Every structure is written in C-alpha cells, then in structure tokens.
Amino acid sequence: MKNKTVKMILAVAVLAVCCGAYAGVKTYVSHQEQKESEAESEENTSVFTASADDIKSLDFMVDDTETTFEKKDDSWVKKDDTDFPVNQSTLDSAASSVTSVESDRVLEDVDDLAEYGLDSPANTIKIVTKSEDEDGDDTTTTLYVGDENSSTSQYYVRKDDEKTVYLVDSSCVEPFTKTLYDYAQMEDFPAISSTDTITKISVDGDNSYELKKDADTSVWSVNANGEEDKADSATVSSLVSSFGSMAYNSMADYKCEDKSKYGLDKPYSTITVDYQEEAETSDDNAETSDSETPDSTETTEMVDKQLTILVGNEADDSNRYVMVNDSNEVYTMSEETLSALTDKTEEDFWDMTVSYVSVNSLASLKVNYQGTDYKVNASRETSTDEDGNDTETVTYKLDGADLNETTFTTFYNKLINMAAQKRLTEKYDPDGDAELTVTFTEEDGDTLEVSYYSYDTNYYAAVVDNKVYLVNKMNIKELFTAFESVAGVEKDETKTDSDEVESDEKASADVETDSETETSDNSDAVTDDDSKSASASDTTDTSESDTEE
Length: 549
Hints:
Elements: H1 2-41, E1 45-49, E2 55-62, E3 65-72, E4 75-78, H2 88-97, E5 100-107, E6 123-129, E7 139-149, E8 154-158, E9 165-169, E10 200-205, E11 209-213, E12 220-224, E13 227-230, H3 233-241, E14 250-253, E15 269-285, E16 295-314, E17 319-324, E18 330-334, H4 335-342, E19 362-369, E20 372-384, E21 390-398, E22 401-403, H5 405-416, E23 422-424, E24 436-442, E25 447-454, E26 459-464, E27 467-472, H6 473-487, H7 498-501, H8 504-517, H9 519-527, H10 533-548
Antiparallel strand pairs: 1-5, 2-3, 2-6, 3-4, 5-9, 6-7, 7-8, 8-9, 10-11, 10-15, 11-12, 12-13, 14-18, 15-16, 16-17, 17-18, 19-20, 19-24, 20-21, 21-22, 23-27, 24-25, 25-26, 26-27
Helix pairs in contact: 5-6, 5-10
C-alpha cells in the first residue's frame, strides 16, 4: 500500500513538471509571434533618401561596363564622353527613382549573401550627393543589387553593411537596367510636312525602280531599266503617304565611324525622295530714315529638298539599320515599314487600265470587229445663250449615219475602263487575227490602238504598243455585246472557236478560281477603285452631260 502511494505521488510530480514545461514553451512561442507581428506592423525602413536636386552623379553598370552620368550646369552628361546625346528625361527619372528607397522587409545578420545574389551583385549603383555644408565633402552611397524575388517582384539590395539585406521595390532598380542607347536622346525622323509635295521616289537595291510625278498633270510614272510606264495612282498614293508616318525604333550608334559594322557601306537598299518644303524668306526695305533700321517683310516660298535613306543589315527579326541624309547616327527601323519600299518591283506599280482616252478629247474611233471596219466621228458645236453661257453639243455618227449617244457612251465606257488582271512580261505572238481592234484619234492628233485576241479559257490578250494585258474573258464578251448594239449587227452564231464551246458559266468560274490563286499579284489591279477613279468619273460625267445635251 505504501509503495502504491509513493508511485502515485511521483506520477503526479512528473505530470506537474510536464505541464509547467508546456506552459513555458507556449508562452515563449506566443511572445515571439507577438514580436514578429509588431515588427511587421512597423513603418517601412528607409534605405536611402536624398533630394533630386542634390544628386550630382549616378554611377552604375550599363552593358557590363561601369558608366557614370553627372550633372553639369543642370544637365546630365556622360562623364567619359560629353558628346554622347544624353536623354535628360530618362536620367532625371533614374535620379528620382532613388530619392526615397524604402524596404518593407529587413533581413539582419545574414551569413550567406549568395542566397540573395549579393555575393556577386547584378548591379552596383553609386549615388553621389552634394554636402549640405558648402565646404563639406560630397557623400557617396552605394547600393548593391542582387536577385529579384519572383514572388513579390522586388529586389534584394544591401549597402556597405554586409550583414543587412533589404527588399526594395523594383521601381528603384529597373531604371538602371537599360542598355546604353536607352539613355540616349534620339533624333526625330526627318518629317515631310506634306507628302503631296513629293515628286520623285527612287529605290536602288535588289529591286530597283523610280517613281516620278509629272509637274503638269500630276500623273505618276514608273521607270525601270530605262522603260517608262504609267503608274497606278492608288498604289503610288499609298506608298507616298507612308513617308508621313515613318519613324525610328531605336538608336544603334550616335557617332558611326565604321559603316560596315551595320552593312551601310554597301547598303541593302538606298531610298531617295525628292520633295518640296515651305521656307521663310525676308525682304529688306531699303527706304528707311537714318534713325530707323530697315524694315523686313517675311514671305514664304517652296524650296527643293531631298531625303536619302541608307538601309543596312538586319538588326533583328523585325528591324534593319538605317542612316539618313548626312547624319552619323545609326538607327533601327521596322522591316515592315521598309519592305513596303524595298520589296516592290516596277510591276507592282503598273497601271492596269488597258486604253483610257477621255471622251472629251475624242475626235474619231475606228473599229475593226470580226473583220469588218467601222468608224465613229465625234462633232462638237458650241452655242451661247442670252446670259453669255456657252454650251457644247456633241453628236456621234457611225459611218456617216447618226448614232444614238447613250448606245455609244455605254460601249465607250466599257472600252476605256477595261482593266487587266495582269500583264505579260514575256514575248507574245498572237494565234490568229484580233477579234476587235480599236484606234482612238484625239482632237490634238494623238492616236492609240488596242487589239483584243483570244488568249485562253479565262483571258483575252489586249495588245497596246509593246504591252500585253490579260483581261477577264467575261468582260470582253460584254464589250463585244455593247459594240454589236452600236454597229446594229447580230452575233454570228455560225462563228465558233474552241473557247466558245465551253459555257460562259464555266469560263466565269475558271476566271474566279484563277484570280483567287493570283490574289497577291493582281489585287491592286482588280480592286484598285481609286486608280480608276479619274477615268471612271471623267467618263461617267461625260456620258451624263452628253446625254443631257
């Protein structure tokens, strides 16, 4: 009984000791959690503060090179190269980013700096601030930048104390992570104030051509290998307007001494643009008194300008190096912007209108249709009413007989608005006689002849001088039908050829299929409404006015 009592007492004693130990541990843990909670609730720790006006220089790593920017006469300069075009706004922003560096988490007594990337810092930012005392020494504060905390997007930094690490906002570090030319002030691409004043564009490279605007008519022509063709107005207009939005992407070299480094010694392409720009001039008035200075009157005049763009090697997948005019600066420009010029050929600018002659200038029209000759003459008479207004009356005669104006202008509109889907560049020898040959004679004596030959299931070949256009067969069938109404003849049902054996529906379907496969080559010619706007409006207006007359 006595032994049982002793064991009971010992058990109670052990239990009491265990309970006491548990209570102690619980109290300690609670106390530590309270301390950590209080620490987290405290305000952020200041790592560095300074007034932006007091920062005299910033020294940090740029492109793996220690680089110093310092203030001189309130402007930033690159210490080792004062000619470098420093972007003042970029350096001001960098200085502002470190005027108040704070940390919301401080790690003290750090034994392993490698854990935070601070054994070999990614960057070292030295901030020199002027002393508050005029006779005092400047103060240099160094911030060593380590790894980025991927969870919080903050950076680990330390100062000279190797035992304390701060976690700071990325906005204090990222302004110092740029490349050298991110701190440079780029020039603006030379602006052409009005692209309407562009008179010539030439491209010399793998694809070479020249576009030129006639000073009197404002009609564009394209020249390549000495041959000149009328250019499609809408295609040229789109190209011309692109110069109004050209811009550099980035600077590559502010003082290029070796063009070969960028492929600019032997350019991939050279683009030259002739244009005009308004410039102010002043005329001095010599009639002044002895006590007065000469009066000056400012006037403006248009002066000739030229823009030259050297296009060099590829800078990356989407840019090329360029150098403009006499500048020694090298920039990058979008490959897409440049290819709109450099990847074109003269064929891309060809006007696909087969034979446009304004009805207002037409004197006569000779037509040979299926071996029979016809001739239409246009006569014009002008009358003046009581108010002195002149009215011109136009009449048409077919082989001396009166011709219905509406019937004729319906045919004529189809004739002069005929647009090809493509042009042949190889030699063409017609197989057989032309089914339709038309000779235009204008009032000034100029003539133009076009002949239409059956080419294949889908096309007719329209031959004008040394040019051969391929025209949708269905459009030619409509033209033939319109002329039959003019000539008052019925279609010769006994005349057949291999092309007409097939149905019109199949021919039309074949043309559409062929057109789809050639969209990239022919889209400008087929859908280019603007390029035909002048001729269409001219013809339509004339047709309406002639009908009224």
